[in-house]
Amino acid sequence: MKFENKGVQKFIDESIALCAPDKVVLIDGSEEQLESLRAEACSTGEMIKLNQELLPGCYLHRTAVNDVARVEGRTFICTEKEEDAGPTNNWMQKDKAYELLKGIYKGAMKGRTMYIIPFSMGAVGSPFSKIGIELTDSIYVVLNMAIMTRVGQNVLDTLGDSDDFVRGLHAKADLDEEKRYICQFPEDNTIMSVNSGYGGNVLLGKKCFALRIASYQGRKEGWLAEHMLILGVEKPNGETKYIAAAFPSACGKTNLAMLIPPKEFAEKGYKVFTVGDDIAWIRVGADGRLYAINPENGFFGVAPGTNAKSNPNALATTRKGTIFTNVVHNLENNTVWWEGLDKNPPKKAIDWKGNPWTEEDRANGVKGAHPNSRFTAPAKNCPCISPEFENPQGVPLDAIVFGGRRAKTAPLVYEARDWAHGVFVGSIMASETTAAASGAVGVVRRDPMAMLPFCGYNMGDYFAHWLEMGEKVTKKPKFFNVNWFRTDDEGHFLWPGFGDNLRVLDWILKRTEGEAEAVETPIGYVPRPEDIDLNGLDMTTEDVADLLTVDKELWKEDAAGIEAFYAKFGDKLPKALADELATLKNNLK
Ligand code: GTP
Ligand code: SPV
Ligand code: MN
To answer: C or N: which end of the chain has fewer Cβ atoms within 10 Å?
Structure first.
């Protein structure tokens, strides 16, 4: 295959020589080509075509049982020096990594086809966008990338003869867990992923490029690549304000990004628009404000729990042109089902492992869908997609929100005092682990800015980069922390969450406009209970007061945890953050 771009030609030639595919196919982005790939995937059983009347253009895919989530233990940042990966990443010396990987990729595509996917993160040709080329032997990956990114010949045309593109090589190989590697080479703009066929491990535009590689690029070039949703809130006066929010995996980004205002808010004229649900690339605009784009073109969302009440917009988004992964196959009408969709699990069904899901299974509480089962749906399907979704300049941010799953310590919401304190609040985020990554679920761990698994360089340098960015932003957004997941002693959530989270966003936006009250606490500013609009909610101001308490004893424990976490960074920890920690400890005395 011939390419005018020498760098592209070299990358492809070397990868073909290494992987030895039988056939090589360039993905041109045409509907005809994608349709023939869908047909091929259905003929081999890789995908199942669903009921085309109820779910037009929709398909089901099941991954291998040992391959259902990101694998953080097998994800590496491969740099020349260990210090550049830092204490929170797995590191491999990059030459050693290339050597090890070459052994695994050797001949891995024999008998298979290699697909060449030119893709753009961000609108094609926008000055904020970045180009990648993913080589893969999986049709599932091709079809998902065609939803999640902008794919096709026009991307190659835009690239021209530039060498500024990310090289991604993915081979399913034998799906051997022992030889599964997700390796990022930020110094070389290169990603190598092998022995997996699952989402974040293999859709290389997403976490590998748009976060791990892009965070490294952002540091060099003066911008930020963040694990953040972006949403717009249109207020009754017609003005739209934008918020970016970082929550760890499976902690509510998609849900918040697509929230439906409570009836009382909708009647007043509030509307919410989704710009992105997972990743934000953030730059300083000429006017000194922060601007964010969503580099993706679709949503790779958690299926379980998505329903007509919790997230009707997400559900509507998945009604056409969507690929479902590891959900229940409803044989009654050839559709899909997952836990929390409705109260009527299908009687005739196949579970995510491909086995009959029986009455007995259901009685025994055996789940039909994997907890990390997902939908891949085009952004344009979303009923509340923002009119600014394609705006190459992005949207201006008024607030940056951090949050996690904390049963106790973190209050419903608090506000940071200033930029440095805001960076501190992001850096001390902690959250219970979820099914989005393999390993134990429900364990509290530090996950700064929700970037622990996604920062492509030393996190100490990342904190410093955040602090430096603040110096360039003359019109600063405010920083907040939220926690929708506080529980009572029986483990029930105390806050209704979902659409009602707008009540908290409303206070946040009013604070950015200087229109709401707050009280100072050791950790920052907290609303007075009466400052949260409870109209229409079956909750009292006393209930909200409970959600807003700052328990000094718990926070002292947390401060000790932060100190231990910070100690990992040695002299890479910016002094401003050490000072913030000292202030927190002092405030808790
Ligand atoms: P990734 O795609 O992994 O990055 O996840 P995400 O951050 O987009 O999380 P998502 O919105 O998919 O939510 C994950 C889980 O959290 C789902 O099971 C939701 O039902 C649940 N969830 C989301 N928002 C809320 C909330 O406000 N309250 C409660 N209690 N649960 C929520
Ligand atoms: C996450 O885990 O944060 C996801 C899903 O958004 S994945 O694409 O698998 O990373
Ligand atoms: Mn995510």
So the answer is: C
Ligand 1 atom 17: the closest Cα is on which residue?
305
Q: Cβ(436) to ligand 1 under 6 A?
A: yes
Average pLDDT, the chain: 97
Q: Cβ-count burial of 343 within 10 angstroms (0-12 exposed, 13-18 middle, 19+ buried)?
A: exposed
Closest by CA to 279, choosing from 349, 230, 346, is 230
Evaluate: CB of 565 within 6 angstroms of ligand 1.
no
- The residue whose CA is least distant from atom 1 of ligand 2 is 249
What is the amino acid identity at position 366?
A: V
Structure tokens at 400: 């940056």
pLDDT of res. 450: 98
pLDDT at 401 over 90: yes
Q: Which residues pair with 335 in a beta bridge?
A: 330
Report how far residue 310's alpha carbon sits from residue 500's, in angstroms, rounded to the nearest whole number: 10
CB atoms within 10 A of CB 575: 10
CA 206 to centroid of ligand 2, rounded, Å = 8
Residue 513 has pLDDT above 90, yes or no: yes
Query: What is the whole-number distance in angstroms between the Cα of residue 260 and the centre of ligand 3?
Result: 21
| CA pair distance 215, 501, nearest whole angstrom | 29
Q: How far apart are CA 226 and CA 205, in angstroms?
A: 14
CB atoms < 10 A from the CB of 526, how many?
20
Q: Quick one: which of 427, 429, 424, 378 has its CA closest to 404?
A: 429
Mean pLDDT of 240-260: 98
Bridge-based pairing of strands 130-136 and 48-49 is unpaired
Cα of 43 from ligand 1 centre, angstroms: 34
Provide the angle, in degrees to the nearest 10, between the axes of the packed helices 575-587 and 419-427: 80
> At residue 204, does pLDDT exceed 90?
yes
**Domains defined for the chain, CATH in brackets:** 6-51+71-222 (3.40.449.10), 226-298+387-587 (3.90.228.20), 300-381 (2.170.8.10)
Strand partners, 304: none
Residues within 6 Å of ligand 2 by CB: 70, 199-200, 206-207, 249, 278, 300, 436
- For atom 28 of ligand 1, the residue with the nearest CA is 497
Rounded-to-integer distance, Cα 185 and Cα 216, Å: 10
Span 18-33, mean pLDDT? 98
276 DSSP β-pair partners: 230
d(CA 126, CA 135): 23
Query: What integer pLDDT is reported at residue 1 of this predicted model?
Result: 86
Q: Which pLDDT band holds residue 170 (cuts at 50, 70, 90)?
A: very high
Structure token pair of residue 132: 């990648």
Measure CA of the first residue to CA of the last residue in the chain; give whole Å: 69
How much is the average pLDDT of 563-584?
98
Q: What average pLDDT does this structure show over 489-493?
A: 93
- Ligand minimally distant from the alpha carbon of residue 72: 2
**Residues with catalytic roles:** 251
The 8-class DSSP code of residue 375 comes to: E
How confident is the model over 119-158, as pLDDT tens digits? 999 999 899 999 999 999 999 999 999 999 999 999 999 9
Q: Count CB atoms within 10 A of the CB of residue 570.
A: 10
Give CA–CA dist 109/534, Å, rounded.
Answer: 58
Say whether pLDDT at 366 is over 90.
yes
